[in-house]
Amino acid sequence: MDPKRLNLLKKVMALEFTCVDFNLYLDTHPEDYRALAEYNAASEALAAAKKEYEALYGPLTNYGHSPSPQAWRWIEEPWPWETTF
Q: Using one digit for the tens of pLDDT, what is the confidence trace for 17-44?
């Protein structure tokens, strides 16, 4: 796999983990506004990384979450979950 693609996919995965972790923390600490600000920043960074990845390499998710503006790209390989690190 292209090293740039792999690095971008790893970035998306790390940001997703960060957002989930903050989400779980904020479930029990809803008044921690510093954590909320960090969650919001991570969420924005995740959206930007996903947008960049999808513009370059195709959709990360299906069922209406990732439009395919040119050709139907779900038939292209490898799919994100088939990537080996």
A: 999 999 999 999 999 999 999 999 999 9
Residue 12: give the domain boundaries.
Answer: 3-82
Q: Domain count of the chain?
A: 1
CB 14 within 8 A of CB 50: no
Assigned token pair, 52: 């960049």
Nearest to residue 51, comparing CAs of 70, 71, 66?
66
Is residue 85 very low, low, confident or very high in pLDDT (cuts 50, 70, 90)? low
* Amino acid (1-letter code) at residue 85: F
**What tokens does 70 get?**
């040119």
State both tokens at 56. 């370059």
**H or E element at residue 47:** helix 33-57
Compute the distance between CA of residue 85 and CA of residue 50 in angstroms, rounded to an integer: 19
